[in-house]
Amino acid sequence: MRLVLTGQQEDLRTAVRDFLADQAGPERVRDVLETADGFDRVLWRRAGAELGVLGLVVAEEHGGAGAGHVERSVVAEELGATLVPSPFLASAVLAVDVLNAVDDVGMRERYLPPLAAGELIGTVAHGAEAAERDGGWRLDGRLAPVISGDVADVVLVHAATPDGTGWFALDTTASGVHRTTLRALDPTRRLARLDLSGARATRLDTADPDAVRSSVDDLAAVALAAEQVGGMRRVLEMTTEYAKVRVQFGRRIGSYQGVKHALADLHGSWEQAVSVLRHAAWAADEDPDELPIAAAVAQVFCAPAAFRAAADGVVLHGGIGYTWEHDAHLYYKRAKTSEVLFGSERDRRLRLADLMGV
Amino acid sequence: MTEPTGSGAAAEAASLGEFSRRAGEFLDSAIPANWSELEPAELIPVAREFQAALYDAGFAGITWPAEYGGQGATAAHEQAFREQAAGHDLPTGPFVIGLGMCGPTLVDLGTDRQRERYVRPLLRGEEIWCQLFSEPDAGSDVASLRTKAVRDGEDWIVTGQKVWTSGARHADFGALLARTDPDVPKHAGLTMFIVDMRAPGVAVRPLRDMTGRSPFNEVHFDQVRLPADAVLGEVGAGWRAAVTMLGHERVSLGGATRRRDEPLGAANLARLARENGTAAVPQVRAELAGLHAAERALELFSVRLRQEAESGTPPGARGSVGKLGGAMLLWQALHAAGEIAGTDAVAWEPGDEAAEELAVAINAVPASSIAGGTNNVQRNIIGERILGLPKEPQVDRDVPFRDLRVGTQRETT
Ligand SMILES: Cc1cc2nc3c(=O)[nH]c(=O)nc-3n(C[C@H](O)[C@H](O)[C@H](O)COP(=O)(O)OP(=O)(O)OC[C@H]3O[C@@H](n4cnc5c(N)ncnc54)[C@H](O)[C@@H]3O)c2cc1C
C-alpha cells in the first residue's frame, strides 16, 4: 500500500489550491451562497475545461484524465478545506461513478464527456418506483435529499422495478419532474427534493444494479472522507493561528494547556484521518477487494472526527467563533451534514462490523 | 540465466513478496513453543536465542544501516515483516528498549567505536539495554534530575538514583542521563553515558507495578566508575541526546505492531463477544467497529510515517501522535472489554488463562499513558513542536541548576 502522495499528486494539489485561492477565496464563497444557483457556474466550467479535475476518474476515451481516486481525493480534500460550494460530490463523484460502474457503454459515451468537461451536471438519487408504460420507463416517487438536485441536468436514479432494482437516467427538464430546493443546515451544500410523477427515463444496461450501488457508495465514502479531512485541516490551521495571537489573562491562549491540548488532540485525529483516507483512496485504485472495509473504516473514523474538530474549532475561538461573520460555523454545519447525509454513525459502525465478520 | 524482464518496480515487488514469504516461514518455524508461560528469568535465554536467529535470518534491524550491522533494507520490507509478525506472539520483549530506543540513538550519536562495539550485539540479542532517565523527583521534567557524574582524571564517577527503570534487572547496559555541570541551567549541564549494569556500585532493586509484576526497578549508583569513552554524544550535550532518544522512543512505542490476538484488541474482543453471545447486540457490534477503525487509523498512521521517513521526511515530533494515540486507544479498548466481557473481565475460574490475560491487560492500561512521557506531556510536545503554539511560561530555564529553588530540588547540590 502507498500512503504518501507522489510528486505529481502533490503538484495537482498545488494547482487546485492555487486555483481556489485565486478564484474562490472566503469572500467569494459567501457571495455565491447568495446567488440563485448557490455556486459559481463559470468557475465550474473552468474546473472542468482548464483544470481538468471533474473527470479525474473518467477514462481518456471519454474525455477524462484517466487518473485515479487518489487524485480525486486530493481535489475533494481541497474543496473540503475551502468549502467552495459546487456540485463536485454530486457530479464528479456520484454520477461519474454510476456511469463507470454500469455495463452501458452507450450511456457512458453520452454522459461522461460533458460531465468531465463541466458542461453538464449530474447527481444520483435513490428510492423511486420504475414501471414500463406508454412505450418506455416511467419513474414515480419522492426523492430527498438529493445532493445538488436543484442544479443537476441529469439524475441517475436507483429505482425499484417489477424485476428487482435498476438504474435510470432522468433528464430534469422532462415533464413529471418537480424540484424543490430544501432549506439546509449547511448553506454550502445544496440539497433538493425531487417529486417524480410518471417522469420518462432511460434504463441503463447493467447486470447487477445493487452491486453498482454498493461500489458507488464505497467510492462516495472515500470522496466524503477526503472532504472531511480537508475541512479538519483548515479548522486546525485556523484555530492554531488564532491561539497564537489571541491574548487573555496576559498570555496567548495557545500557551494554556486547556487550549493547547485540545489542539494537540485535534492534530492527532487529523493525522490519523489522513492516513485512513490515503489507504481507502489507494484501495479504490489498487485493491478493490479491500475497498469496502477500507471505505467503511474511513467513514467510521473521519465522520465523527471531522465534526469534533469543527465543533472544537468554534468553541476555541470563543464568541467570535459563534458569529455569522466567522467561517467556523460553515465547517461545523458542513461536518454535521456530512456526518448524517449517507447514514448515521450507528449504520456505519454496524456495516463495518458486518464487514469485519463479527 | 534469463534477463529480468519486469520493470524495476515489478522486480522490487517480487523481491518484497519473497522477503515476506521467507519471513512468514521463519516465524512459523522459529518461535519457541509456550514461551509465554516462562518466568521472566527463564525467558531471557530463550529470547536471546530467538533474537539471534531473527538476526541471522535477516529480520533484525531491517532498516538499520548495513555498515553498523543492520540489513539496510527499505520501510516496505519492515512493513512486510511487521504484517507477518502481527499474526504471531514474539518473545522480543526484553529487547524493546534496546532496539526501539538505545540502538537508534547509538546509530545517530555514537562514535564509530561505540557503534562497532554495541550495535550488532544488540541486534543479535546478545546484550540487553535499559534506559536510565527517570528519578524519584524528575519524571516529566527529566532535566531536573540529580544523579551526578563527576570527573576523576579521564574517568567519571556516578552517584545517584534512578527509578521505574524497565528491564534493569536483566540489562547488560544502560543509557544513563546524569548531571555533569550544576553551574549551568538544568538542560545545559547533562551528559549521556553508556553504563555497564554489572559495574561495581550499580545496585538494582525490583519494584512491583499495579499488575503485580515487577518489570521495572530502582537503580542505585554508588561511586560507579565509567571510562571516558562511556560518553554517548558530547559532554554537556546530554539533553540533545535525550531528546533524540525520546523521539525514537515515541516512534517505537507509537508504531509498535499490535499482536492480532492481543487481549484488548478488537479481534480478540470480537471473539469473546461471539463466545459469550453478545456479538449480535448492536451496541457491542458498534463498539467493536469503532475500536477496529481506531486501531486501523493508528496502524495506517505509523505505516505512513515510515513511508514518509523513507521518502525523506523524518517523523520528528510526530512520533508523539502515535504514542498518544496508542495510549488513548487502550482506554477505548478497555471500555469495550468491560461492555463485552462484563463480570468475566473481573472474576474468572482458576486456570482460565485467557481471562487472566485480559485482566492483566486491563490492569496495564495506565502504563501507556505514563511511560515514555505522559499523555499531557505528549500533548505539550504536539502543541509546541508541531503546531508551534507558545510555550508554557518557564520559571527555571535560565537559572543555574545549583541555584534552583523551585520544582523538585530540595537540598543544595
Ligand atoms: C511502565 C513504566 C515503565 C517505565 N520505564 C521507564 C524506563 O525504562 N526508564 C525511565 O527512565 N523511566 C521509565 N518510566 C518512568 C516514566 O518515564 C515516568 O513515570 C513519566 O515520564 C512520568 O513522570 P513521573 O512519574 O515523575 O510523573 P510526574 O511528572 O510527576 O507527573 C504526574 C502528573 O502530572 C502531569 N504533569 C507533569 N508535568 C506536566 C506538565 N508540564 N503539563 C501537564 N501535566 C504535567 C503528568 O501528566 C502526570 O499526570 C516508566 C514508567 C512506567 C509507568
UniProtKB/TrEMBL annotation, chain A:
Pfam families: Acyl-CoA_dh_1, Acyl-CoA_dh_N. GO terms for molecular function: acyl-CoA dehydrogenase activity; flavin adenine dinucleotide binding. Residues 222-346 form the Acyl-CoA dehydrogenase/oxidase C-terminal domain. Its cofactor is FAD. InterPro entries: Acyl-CoA_Oxase/DH_mid-dom_sf, AcylCo_DH-like_C, AcylCo_DH/oxidase_C, AcylCoA_DH/ox_N, AcylCoA_DH/ox_N_sf, AcylCoA_DH/oxidase_NM_dom_sf. Belongs to the acyl-CoA dehydrogenase family. This is Alkylation response protein AidB-like acyl-CoA dehydrogenase. It comes from Saccharopolyspora gloriosae. The lineage of its organism: Bacteria, Bacillati, Actinomycetota, Actinomycetes, Pseudonocardiales.
Automatic annotation (TrEMBL), chain B:
Belongs to the acyl-CoA dehydrogenase family. Its cofactor is FAD. GO terms for cellular component: plasma membrane. Residues 130-224 form the Acyl-CoA oxidase/dehydrogenase middle domain. This is Alkylation response protein AidB-like acyl-CoA dehydrogenase. The keyword Repressor does not apply. Keywords: FAD, Flavoprotein, Oxidoreductase. Residues 236-387 form the Acyl-CoA dehydrogenase/oxidase C-terminal domain. Residues 19-126 form the Acyl-CoA dehydrogenase/oxidase N-terminal domain. It comes from Saccharopolyspora gloriosae. GO terms for molecular function: flavin adenine dinucleotide binding; oxidoreductase activity, acting on the CH-CH group of donors. InterPro entries: Acyl-CoA_Oxase/DH_mid-dom, Acyl-CoA_Oxase/DH_mid-dom_sf, AcylCo_DH-like_C, AcylCo_DH/oxidase_C, AcylCoA_DH/ox_N, AcylCoA_DH/ox_N_sf, AcylCoA_DH/oxidase_NM_dom_sf, Mycobact_Acyl-CoA_DH.
